[in-house]
Amino acid sequence: MKIIILGSAAGGGFPQWNCACRMCAAARAGTPGVLPRTQSSVAVSADGIHWFLLNASPDVGQQLAQTPALHPAGGVRHSPVAGVVLTNADVDHIAGLLSLRERHAFSLYATARVHQVLAANPIFAVLNPEVVARRPLVLEEEAELMLPGGEPAGLIVTAVAVPGKVALWLEDAARADFGSVAGDSIGLRIADPAGGSTFWYLPGCAAMPAGLAARLDGADLLLFDGTTWRDDEMLRGGTGAKTGRRMGHMSMAGEDGSIAVLAGVNVARRIFIHINNTNPVLLPRSAERVAAAAAGWEIAWDGMEIDL
Ligand code: MLT
Ligand code: MN
Ligand code: ZN
Questions:
Q1: In sequence order, which residues have a C-beta less than 8 Å from that of residue 47 and are 6 or more positions away?
Q2: Cα–Cα distance, 284 to 196 (Å, whole number)
Q3: Is the CB of 161 under 6 A from ligand 1?
Q4: Cα 20 to middle of ligand 3, angstroms
Q5: Predicted confidence (pLDDT) per residue in 15-73, tens digit
Q6: What does pTM read for this prediction?
Q7: How do the pLDDT tens digits run along the chain, 308 residues long?
Q8: Residue 80 near ligand 1, beta carbon < 6 Å
Q9: Nearest ligand (C-alpha, residue 23)
Q10: Looking at domain 2-305, what is its CATH homologous superfamily?
Q11: What letter does residue 235 receive in the DSSP assignment?
């Protein structure tokens, strides 16, 4: 199984267009080691020929352009993109769908809840359902990803409900938990039965129940929510009024942070993705980056390739 990190930043990207915090300024200035990052997306393939995008970033055009494996390679009209799998309806995960029009046939996988959100927004009809097949992800059911022609792609996906919330733009302030329901935010377990490898992709996870941590045990790779280092870093830095938890993300640091809570989980490789532009791990020599590395965590970068 092959994995390419297309976009390692959280919503807004790095640098974010309207942010002049010290981190975004360093990225904008081209400071050595401070790599710009596009918004949240991963590509996966069992055969290196047919690829599935895990989330469709607003930056998908740039991501496809800078990834040779995803360039057209067969005829006048072609793309190796065989499908898109969504983990939620956040803008950073669905806006790229609008750039994948042009009558390229692919399969679009999401929970019923996220499919409903797309169906309720007529602009997503630019992906004509006759060309782009909507396929369901049912929580806790293994689904074999299909190529547009109906052949199996060699990847088995399981959608798992994770602590989180409804997309920011769908929040209902009058309702408990902002109107979130099961299926609004999922994690993915992806297995390549032929190659015998498994990884987890959880770009948004608000907490780590013991049951979920136990399920991660034994995986070859964990791609995990790296939005914030500290829960209150946006408030402290003056870039925002929300905590990470309020946005549906657990932090890296602290007793209940992901580094500590996942320390005892046995995964061959652990990598933070969906990293917010306020997170100091983006600076290569920061104390936070050193601490994360010492705890065994890698920090994803755009173009990072992983063979499992
Ligand atoms: C998130 O991950 O919390 C969202 O991408 C926030 C947003 O939509 O801006
Ligand atoms: Mn996001
Ligand atoms: Zn910034």
A1: 153, 154
A2: 34
A3: no
A4: 6
A5: 999 999 999 999 999 999 999 999 999 999 999 999 999 999 999 999 999 999 999 99
A6: 0.98
A7: 999 999 999 999 999 999 999 999 999 999 999 999 999 999 999 999 999 999 999 999 999 999 999 999 988 999 999 999 999 999 999 999 999 999 999 999 999 999 999 999 999 999 999 999 999 999 999 999 999 999 999 999 999 999 999 999 999 999 999 999 989 999 999 999 999 999 999 999 999 999 999 999 999 999 999 999 999 999 999 999 999 999 999 999 999 999 999 999 999 999 999 999 999 999 999 999 999 999 999 999 999 999 99
A8: no
A9: 3
A10: Ribonuclease Z/Hydroxyacylglutathione hydrolase-like (3.60.15.10)
A11: H
Q: Is 76 helix (H, G, I), strand (E, B) or coil?
A: coil
Encoding tokens for residue 116? 């409903």
Owner of token pair 């981190």: 23
Ligand 1 mutation target, pool 17, 92, 93, most atoms within 8 A of CB: 92
Domain boundaries, the chain: 2-305
Residue nearest to atom 6 of ligand 1 (CA): 11
The token pair that represents 307 in the structure block: 């063979």
Residue of 257, 264, 296, 304 whose CA lies nearest to 279: 257
Q: 231: Cβ below 6 Å to ligand 1?
A: no
Residue with tokens 């209150």: 232
CB 38 within 8 A of CB 57: yes
- Ligand 2 centroid from CA 89, angstroms: 9
Residue 56: what residue type? A
Q: Give the chain's length.
A: 308
Comparing CA positions, the residue from 180, 176, 143 lying closest to residue 163 is 180
